[in-house]
Amino acid sequence: MHGFCKKISVLKTTIMKTMKFIRVPALVLLLAVGACTKTNNVAPVTTASVTTDDAATLMANSMSSGSGGMVGASADVTLNAQVTFNANPGCGGTKTYSFSRQNPQGSSVTYSYAFNYSYTLNCVNNTPDNVSSTATSTGSFDGPNLSSTDSGTSTFTVAGLAPGATAYTLSGEYKRTGSFTQKTGNMNQGSSNIDITLSSLSIPKAGGTIASGSATFTLSGSSNKGAFSFNGTITFIGNNQANIVINGTAYMVNLLTGSTTKS
């Protein structure tokens, strides 16, 4: 095709000179020249580096308690916030906690994370009202669909700590960044940045799992196939499940195992 187009361009001047005598053939050749120019300018076909299915797996991994994710962090935060509230270190007083979390022995999913928390007792009119926390974490996860090495930060505020309250209310932000390797799907390798903003999660004191609430998130990063960026919403519906919508595509997430099902 390239050689043909080159020959056509050489004839272009002759065509213009003889246009009035051989109108139809000249027109045909000029159209061929135009076709060659358009063919040479066609953009290459590209494919998405990370699909919404891949993004759902990354998000589920960052959320599930079985991978040291945000759900596990929320349980730790509410428990230690209650301990801090009960200890009453004074308005503005702080307490710190450090601990690690590993998978149960014999589990098909392995993970190990270390956490450092700082809690501050906040007062209203000199009366203890809520507890705010900041935290850092580092660790790794290896499951059937994905393995990752991550570090994270979080800021939470916990209310509902008074003796008469039956549920905690949790709001704040959870961030997680690190490297990942997919074992299914597109088999991507790369790095990711996840930012989840939580709004009024309700966590019954009797059960300790998220009963309701919502969140928004952004997911960005790069893989061996290029950069990616997603955003969406999370709706917690109880029974260790959540609905997640990623760029308009809906998934059901098991908050214990991190498994996903397209809705």
Structure notes:
- The structure is a single chain.
- The chain is of the alpha+beta class and about 260 residues long.
- It has two domains: about 1-40, no CATH class; about 50-260.
- Helix content is about 25%, strand content about 50%.
- It has helices spanning about 1-10, 10-15, 25-40, 50-65, 70-85, and strands at about 95-100, 110-125, 125-140, 145-160, 165-180, 190-205, 210-225, 225-240, 240-245, 250-255, 260.
- The two termini are about 45 Å apart.
- Mean pLDDT is about 85; it is low at about 5-45.
Order of SSEs, N→C?
HHHHHEEEEEEEEEEE
N-to-C CA distance? 47 Å
How many helical elements? 5
Helix content: 10-25%
Radius of gyration, taken over Cα atoms and rounded to an integer in Å: 28 Å
Mean pLDDT: 84
Residue fraction in strands: over 45%
Name the shape in a single word.
globular
Largest sheet: 11 strands, antiparallel
By DSSP, the count of extended strands is: 11
| Classification by helices and strands | alpha+beta
User: Can you tell me the residue ranges where pLDDT is under 50 for at least 5 consecutive residues?
Assistant: 4-47
Question: Strand order within the widest sheet?
Answer: 1-2-3-4-5-6-7-8-9-10-11
State the assembly state of the protein chains.
single chain
Number of separate structural domains: 2
Describe the secondary-structure layout.
Elements: H1 2-10, H2 12-17, H3 23-40, H4 52-63, H5 70-87, E1 94-102, E2 110-124, E3 127-142, E4 146-159, E5 167-182, E6 189-204, E7 212-223, E8 226-238, E9 241-246, E10 249-254, E11 260-262
Antiparallel strand pairs: 1-2, 2-3, 3-4, 4-5, 5-6, 6-7, 7-8, 8-9, 9-10, 10-11
Helix pairs in contact: 1-3
